[in-house]
TrEMBL record:
Pathway: Glycolipid biosynthesis; lipid IV(A) biosynthesis; lipid IV(A) from (3R)-3-hydroxytetradecanoyl-[acyl-carrier-protein] and UDP-N-acetyl-alpha-D-glucosamine: step 6/6. It catalyses: a lipid A disaccharide + ATP = a lipid IVA + ADP + H(+). Keywords: ATP-binding, Kinase, Lipid A biosynthesis, Lipid biosynthesis, Lipid metabolism, Nucleotide-binding, Transferase. This is Tetraacyldisaccharide 4'-kinase. Belongs to the LpxK family. It comes from Aggregatibacter aphrophilus. Pfam families: LpxK.
Length: 325
């Protein structure tokens, strides 16, 4: 929603609905705080990776980075997710790199592929955690999203934020992009901004691509070898992907932004020039493998998070897990 990033007349017109949204969410959170609504405490530490605003903030790369960093520290890490967009017949569902992304969801399959960590999806996060603990040895659970899911108790909270868009116009849904007021940020453990620094930054996340991978042959090719290409993206913030490619000297002859978690079919690609490389995100690629063509490439990114507070955050988790181990 473009008006979420300015205080236009549309945003002001919707303010009564935002007030109602604030009232409902505030009362609900208070009921959990007073133990009038039941919440679940896992037997091992839980880390929430979430955001205050809707839209593509870079949460999945942050989850992958956190899993990899904690694994380097010797911890056995499990990941749970609601599995947005998944169409599994039964939940909870254990997700592996070979899982069907239509059944398991694109982001859980990507996380499992990149980290090799055990992943479980379910709208009921308690079920997801208990399923993981039954099937894998875990020292810590990372919840992909769920900052506002107060039914799940947590030990740590990491907020990921798009540095450029920030908190938009500062209004709650539907007047703005926020699920909670900006004051909520005072209670989280760390705020990581994606792309650059802003007034909220505790640490900065940079996504660095180096090469593209062919969906059919699995061959790798440096990005600087692509002079012209078509680019598609079905993520929360497609322009960020297109800009990244252009910054690597690639002339984009055609771009197509799809909805986040878009379900792909061969028909959606029929209009694109087959004589030109087609570049997509790794998240999109997991849904296109079964019908990919030889001129299709995906661009994996390496997540780098800079800042002393990021390493301090990792150490706090390790120390907490050490008390449980």
């Amino acid at each position: 929603m473009q008006f979420w990033y300015s205080r236009s007349w549309i945003a002001w017109l919707l303010c009564p609905f935002s007030l109602l949204f604030w009232l409902i969410t505030t009362v609900r959170r208070a009921l959990f705080r007073l133990n009038l609504l039941k919440s679940y405490r896992a037997s091992i530490p839980v880390v929430i990776v979430g955001n205050l605003s809707v839209g593509g903030n870079g949460k999945t790369p942050a989850v992958i980075w956190l899993v990899q960093e904690l694994t380097k520290c010797g911890l056995n890490v499990g990941v749970i997710s609601r599995g947005y967009g998944s169409k599994a017949k039964n939940y909870p569902l254990l997700v592996t790199p070979t899982s069907d992304p239509i059944e398991a969801g694109d982001e859980p399959v990507l996380i499992a592929t990149r980290t090799q960590a055990p992943v479980c999806i379910s709208p009921n996060r308690q079920q997801a955690i208990e399923c993981l603990l039954q099937h894998a040895k875990c020292d810590v659970i990372i919840s992909d999203d769920g900052l506002q899911h107060y039914k799940l108790q947590r030990d740590f909270e990491l907020v990921i934020m798009d540095a450029e868009r920030g908190l938009g116009n500062g209004f709650l849904l539907p007047s703005g992009p926020l699920r909670e007021l900006p004051s909520r940020l005072k209670n989280v453990d760390i705020i990581i901004t994606n792309g650059s620094e802003n007034q909220y930054s505790d640490a900065i996340m940079t996504l660095k691509p180096q090469y593209a991978v062919n969906l059919v042959t699995k061959a790798q090719r440096p990005l600087n070898e692509f002079s012209q290409a078509t680019a598609i993206a079905g993520i929360g913030n497609p322009p960020r992907f297109f800009t990244m490619l252009q910054q690597h000297g690639i002339q984009l002859m055609e771009t197509q932004a799809f909805q986040d978690h878009q379900s792909f079919s061969p028909e959606l690609f029929a209009k694109f020039d087959k004589n030109r490389p087609l570049l997509m995100t790794e998240k999109d690629a997991v849904k296109c493998m079964t019908f990919a063509e030889e001129h299709w490439w995906y661009v994996p990114v390496t997540t780098e998070i800079q800042g002393e507070k990021a390493q301090q955050f990792i150490q706090k988790i390790v120390q907490k897990c050490g008390q449980k181990m």
